[in-house]
Structures are given as structure tokens and as C-alpha cells.
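Hi,

Apologies if this is the wrong queue. I'm a grad student, and the batch job for SnoaL-like domain-containing protein from Spirosoma fluviale produced an output file that my downstream script rejects. I'm not sure whether the problem is my script or the file. Here is the sequence I used:
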Amino acid sequence: MESPVNLMQLQFDVIQTVNAIFNTTDRQEWHSCQDLFADEVLLDYESLSGQAPIRLAPSQIISAWQQVLPGFAFTQHMLSNHEVSVIGADQVSCVCKGHAVHYIPNAVGGEEWGVYGTYRFELVRHPGGWKVSTMQYNHKFAHGNLKLGELASERVRQYNQ
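Support response: The file is valid. Your script probably expects a header line. Output copied below for reference.
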């Protein structure tokens, strides 16, 4: 059993890792974001996209995000109410609430798309710190322009031509 001081440090480190995924994503610091993931990640956004969970390399996750997120003028991902649980000696879980704002000025249908839900992460201990091995989003609801993600993807495609 970890001491209270060690448990507090573990919780802090895990929460910092989880938050860093979204902070680096919002800043489009792709290499820093990629380094936060384990060698293989179970990515589960089925509740939002309808696509089955899939195991991906971190580079594949980042590549997919790069096809959409730079198309927004602004994104802001906010997490709160983190609950960290020890699964094993080198594995933990973190559950938290999430709210993401996506923005494109003057977009037809509205400038903002917001999504709300919860996340469940599993992390494994590596020599350099904690790495995310599972990222599951549990969608609750969305508001605003539900087509904004498609517009962002199109903007990225146009920019890359």
C-alpha cells in the first residue's frame, strides 16, 4: 500500500498526464502529446462517433487528430472532478468530466460546437512517468453546430492541397 504522501504524488502525476493530453492538443503540440501515450492505446469514442473501439499507435492517434483539430480557429478542452484509482503496482485509472469547445468564426450553422461527457483513462507506469494506455470518452450531449467537425476537416484538407 502506498503511503498517503506517495498516493498524493501519484494522483497529482496521473492528473497532470491526463490534463497534458488536452493542453498539448489545444496548443497543437503534437510531439509532446504523442509522448503521453503508451506504445499501444485502446481509443474508444464509440459513444460519440459510433465507431468501435480500436487499438492504435500514438502516431496514428495524432495523425487522425491532425486531420480535424487544426481546422478549428480555437479548441478548448476542460477536465474536472478527476478520480484516480490504483489498479495494480504499475497501472491506474482516472475518471473525469470533460467539456470541449470547438470554434470557427462565421461558420454557416453557427460558430461553436460543444461536447460534454466523461472520460475513463487507464495509465501504465513507464520510466519517464505515466502513459495513457486506454482513453474512453462517454458522450452525454452536444450543443451548437453539430457539423463544425466536418467543416474543420474540410478546412484542413483545403489547407493541405
